[in-house]
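Is this the right way to post structure tokens for a design question? Let me know if I should format differently. Anyway, here goes:
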């Protein structure tokens, strides 16, 4: 597997400037850009497999959202918020000088894409929301809050992989080789071992979310969603505890009215590594003919009619 190029762009925050890292695949002169944005405690190398699948057809850019991966950590943890991430991505898109922009966002990365797509004059040509929508189920917030920002130290990559797998069952089945490949970029060297790659302070604003704030945020997200005008695809793990089946169905009836594809045997969130997951994204982004309505993808090669 070839390696991506690592670049940085300076972005503005409330205390000054910070550097945001981004991983770039493909021809740097290609103005057809696919941006892939990761989840809350992840980083841009999650998309290595997906990026390889677009080889020769798109320049693929995978940012490490600030506070994660190779990006800087913020002096003020309250800067770890979706509006600030959207602003960072506007800066990134200006740097990329793209002619067309497709966006794939997993969980938090999907909310960033939703924020961008809802802006007047948005540059997004298409949007893939991976297991996220305007309504975030409370049970998922409790699950994520149980580990986010907690101190951890692992002596070996294998030990880290086992610990991360224990909190990542929703990602669905992976081979050991696939999981180790997903684990290594999640680690930072520390002493005689490793620690998580992200700033523990990303948990500070997360833990301030009350039921009342969540409800207000839900209303604002629906308003943003209804402003999205670009082509949209909605992916869902059929066992997701974050994006409910009811919310996903409601999303198909309003706003951009996306096609919904569900993956059997997966919760939150599909990692876009398995062949059927990669194929769903490629078909949509590359404008291949698609079927309308809800579909469910299992371990086999065929589309199965959903409910």
């Amino acid at each position: 597997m070839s390696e991506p190029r690592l670049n940085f762009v300076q972005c503005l925050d409330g205390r000054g400037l910070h550097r945001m890292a981004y991983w770039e695949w493909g021809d740097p002169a290609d103005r057809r850009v696919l941006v892939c944005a990761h989840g809350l405690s992840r980083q841009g190398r999650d998309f290595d497999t997906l990026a390889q699948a677009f080889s020769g057809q798109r320049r693929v850019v995978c940012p490490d959202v600030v506070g994660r991966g190779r990006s800087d950590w913020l002096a003020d943890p309250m800067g770890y918020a979706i509006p600030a991430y959207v602003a960072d991505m506007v800066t990134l898109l200006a740097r990329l000088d793209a002619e067309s922009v497709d966006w794939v966002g997993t969980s938090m990365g999907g909310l960033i894409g939703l924020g961008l797509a809802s802006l007047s004059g948005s540059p997004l040509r298409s949007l893939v929301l991976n297991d996220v929508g305007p309504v975030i189920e409370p049970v998922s917030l409790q699950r994520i809050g149980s580990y986010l920002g907690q101190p951890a130290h692992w002596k070996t990559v294998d030990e880290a992989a086992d610990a991360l797998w224990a909190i990542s069952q929703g990602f669905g089945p992976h081979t050991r080789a696939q999981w180790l490949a997903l684990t290594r970029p999640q680690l930072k060297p520390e002493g005689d071992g490793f620690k998580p790659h992200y700033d523990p302070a990303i948990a500070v604003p997360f833990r301030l979310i009350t039921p009342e704030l969540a409800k207000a945020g839900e209303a604002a997200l629906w308003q943003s969603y209804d402003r999205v005008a670009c082509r949209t695809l909605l992916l869902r793990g059929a066992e997701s505890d974050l994006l409910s089946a009811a919310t996903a169905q409601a999303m198909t009836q309003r706003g951009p009215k996306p096609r919904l594809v569900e993956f059997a045997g997966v919760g939150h969130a599909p990692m876009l590594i398995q062949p059927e997951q990669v194929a769903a994204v490629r078909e949509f982004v590359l404008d291949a003919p698609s079927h309308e309505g809800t579909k469910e993808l299992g371990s086999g090669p065929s589309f199965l009619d959903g409910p």
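Format looks fine. Someone answered above. Worth noting: The radius of gyration is 18 Å. The chain has ten helices and twelve strands.
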